[in-house]
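Changelog note: in this version the structure field was regenerated for every chain. One regenerated record is shown below for reference.
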Amino acid sequence: MRKTYQLHIEGKHRDRLLDAARHDIHRYLRRERRRPLPEGARFWDFDCRFGTTEQDAAPVREEALTRLIDGVAASGAAQFYVEIVARPGEGLPPRRGDASGEGHTHPHDDDGHDGDAGGDGSDGGGDGGGGGGGD
């Protein structure tokens, strides 16, 4: 998908044009994710570029698109350009909150625990929790 969205069209409200652009982008992403994966791929990854024009578009993460569109809306720009190219991803998908771009990690720690020290969430007393003294 390579498209320049115009935000100043006579007779149309700017906010509705922004909503339509967001909807169009998210609809494209959903449609591409529904496509069958090629052999050996585990997920669909997206190479994205964003800018006010095609010439000044820079690579961005998929998760940043909505925030960037909001930034264009706040700046009052007349248009913006979005390029999204789907490609088969290998390995594990990147973490959603990882801004480094190298988030190909498993959601759990390497030791297999998910963060709590006791493993079962209890206080170790065998009574199921609480930890308080009984008076």
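Spot check on this record: Residues 2-89 form one domain. The longest strand covers residues 79-89.
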